[in-house]
Write a structure and sequence with these properties.
The protein has 149 residues and is α+β, with helices and mostly antiparallel strands.
Length: 149
């Protein structure tokens, strides 16, 4: 395998092994991502995923969680105020960031962070998963979209 090739399955399998050591119960889903559910405060929950990525320093994972959906269209989309609020919140977040993924008919706000797989230990993985879960849930509540994710 060349250095430019990412063995996504091996990366996610390694992530799953470290998650087990961290006491996080999850599974590899049909998309090949690691998925785990987290029970948060006030009877809220959040699904958190990890997908393999290539970084300049080697194989890594992007830990992410969906936070809100904004439909496209005349009366939809992400307003300027919402976009600015997301950017401002990025300055205050520790171990996570907000981003927007564009889909065919909607924008998906996610909380995420990236980390290298070769140096990932159980404590770091646990912190990453919980940080992303809380950040995503915080925006989900702000967006007024219930407890969908």
């Amino acid at each position: 395998m060349s250095e430019d090739t990412l063995d996504e399955k091996a990366v996610i399998n390694r992530f799953s092994e470290v998650a087990t050591l961290a006491g996080i119960k999850g599974e590899i889903d049909e998309d090949g991502d690691f998925a785990a559910g987290f029970n948060l405060n006030d009877d809220r929950s959040q699904m958190v995923f990890a997908r393999a990525i290539k970084t300049p320093a080697g194989p890594g994972v992007c830990v992410f969680s969906h936070a809100a959906i904004y439909k496209k269209g005349v009366f939809g989309g992400i307003s300027k105020n919402v976009a600015i609020e997301l950017l401002k919140r990025n300055e205050d977040l520790s171990f996570a960031r907000y981003g927007v993924r564009e889909r065919e008919d909607e924008f998906l706000v996610v909380a995420s962070l990236d980390t290298l797989i070769d140096t990932l230990d159980p404590d770091e993985l646990d912190s990453a998963m919980w940080s992303v879960a809380y950040a995503a849930d915080e925006w989900e509540q702000k967006a007024g979209q219930g407890d969908e994710f």
